[in-house]
Amino acid sequence: MPYHHGNLRKALLDAAVALIGEVGPRAFTLREVARRAGVSHNAPYRHFASKDDLLLAVAAEGFDRLAAVMREAMAPGRSSREQLELCGCGYVDFALRWPQHLVVMFDLPAVVRERCDASPRVGENAFQVLLDCITAAQQSGDLPTGDPQPLAWTAWSLVHGIAKLATGGNLPLTAEATLAFTRTAAQALLGGLGRTAPETAQTL
Amino acid sequence: MPYHHGNLRKALLDAAVALIGEVGPRAFTLREVARRAGVSHNAPYRHFASKDDLLLAVAAEGFDRLAAVMREAMAPGRSSREQLELCGCGYVDFALRWPQHLVVMFDLPAVVRERCDASPRVGENAFQVLLDCITAAQQSGDLPTGDPQPLAWTAWSLVHGIAKLATGGNLPLTAEATLAFTRTAAQALLGGLGRTAPETAQTL
DNA sequence: CGAGAATGTTGACATGAGCAACTTTTCACG
DNA sequence: CGTGAAAAGTTGCTCATGTCAACATTCTCG
C-alpha cells in the first residue's frame, strides 16, 4: 500500500493535532503541517481536499476515540448508575488526553460541518454509547422511564461543560482532580435526575 | 469625542460580531471588518493592536453582557434556589442571543489570552454573580455549606455545556425549548446537589 | 491661528490557501 | 516483463490577509 512517504495521511493528521496543540486551531496552518511531515506545501491536497477537510478528519478521528474511551471506561459488572458515571468520566478523560481533538470536534463553525456529507452522523457513535447507558439505567430503575433523549442531553451537557471548561483552563484543577470532580458532579446530577418524576423528565 | 468616522471602535466591534456570526471565527478577517465599516484596511489598527486584540475586545464585551444578563435574570423575591436556576437560564439565554460572543469568549486559544494583561480577570465579574448565588443558596440551606467554589464549577459546567451544545447546533431544540430544558436540568442538578453531604461537597 | 496628537489612508512585504502543470512512483494487465 | 494509467508528490503561480512604515487629514487646545 505505501509508496513515497510511507503513509502520509496519518502523518499529516498527527502533525495537525500536534500543531493545533501548540498554536491553536486558528493559527494552525496547512503549510506548516506539510513542513513537519517533510513534504511540499501541496502534498496534503492529495489526501485532503482542503484545510477544513483535514480538520474534519481530525474531528472524525476524535469522535471515534471518544466512543472508544467511553466504552472502555465503563467497567463491566457495575450498576447501571455507576456505568453512567464512568461513562461521563470517560468523556472528560478523553477531553483531557486529547484536548485538540475536542476543540476541533466542537468548535468548527457550522458552515464547515454542513459542507461535509459524511459528517452529519460522525458523532452518532459516541452519542449512542451514552444513550445505551441511559436506557440501561432506566431499565434498572435508576432513572425515570420515558424518552431517554432529554436525559442524555442533560448528562452530555454536564460532562461537555466540564470538558470544555477544564481544557480551556477555566477549572484550576489537575487532571486527576478534574476526573474526581466529574465523578462527584455526575453523582449529584444522577441523584437529582433519579428523583425526577417521569412526566417531569418528559418536559426536559 | 467623535471625529472622522463618528466612533469607529464600536462600529468595528459590531461588524466583527456580525462577521463572526456569518463565517465563524476562523474565517473571520480584519480586512473584511474594515470593509464593512467603510474604512481602509489599516484603520482598525488605530483602535486595536492586532486581530487578536479585536477578538479579545469582543470577548470582554461578551463577559460584561453575560454578567448583566445573569443579574437581570434573577427576579428578586424568589427563593435562593429559584434565583440559582434563573441565573443559569440567564447564562444560556445570553449564549442563545449572542452566540458569537460565547465562541470568542471561550474558544480563544490560551496563547492569545495569556498575551493580554487585562484579560485574566475579565470573566471574574460574571463568575462572581454565580458565586454570590451559590453562597446565598448555602445560607438558605438549599445547598450544603463549605467552599462554594466546587459547587459553582458544577453549576457552571452544566449551563456552559448546554450553552455550547445548543449554540453548536447539537441540541435539536428551539430557543424557548432550550431555556425550558435548562430550567429542568438545573432543578435536577440542584436537587442532587442539595442532598449532598457537606463533606462530600468538599471533595467536589 | 498653529503645533501636535489622534485618525485614517496608501503602499509594501511576508505568508498562507488553493489551482495548474509537471514529475516520479506504483500497480494492473496484457 | 513492459507499458500505460492512476496515485503521490513537486514547483510555480495568483490572490487574499496580517502587519509594518510613511504619509495625509482632522481635531484639540493654547
Element layout with pairings:
The structure is a homodimer of 204-residue chains.
Chain A (H helix, E strand, L loop, with lengths): L7 H20 L2 H8 L13 H23 L6 H18 L1 H9 L2 H5 L9 H16 L8 H20 L7 H20 L3 H6 L1
The structure holds a DNA duplex (30 and 30 nucleotides).
Keywords:
homodimer; 204 residues; mainly alpha; Arc Repressor Mutant, subunit A; Tetracycline Repressor, domain 2; 2 domains; 0% strand; elongated; DNA-binding
CATH superfamily of the largest domain in chain A: Tetracycline Repressor, domain 2
Largest interface, counted by CB within 8 Å of the partner chain's CB: A-B, 46 and 45 residues
* Second CATH tier, the architecture of the largest domain in chain A: Orthogonal Bundle
Taking the alpha carbons of the first and last residues of chain A, their distance comes to 51 Å
Mean pLDDT of chain A: 92
Largest sheet, strands/sense/barrel of chain A: none
Any low-confidence stretches of chain A, pLDDT <50, length ≥5? none
Tally of domains of chain A: 2
Alpha-carbon Rg of chain A, integer: 19 Å
Based on helices, strands and strand pairing, what is the structural class of chain A? mainly alpha
Chain oligomer state: homodimer
Percent of residues in helices of chain A: over 70%
- From the 3D structure, determine the CATH topology of the largest domain in chain A: Tetracycline Repressor, domain 2
- The portion of residues forming beta strands of chain A comes to under 5%
CATH C-level class of the largest domain in chain A is Mainly Alpha
Please tell me what the overall shape of chain A is: elongated
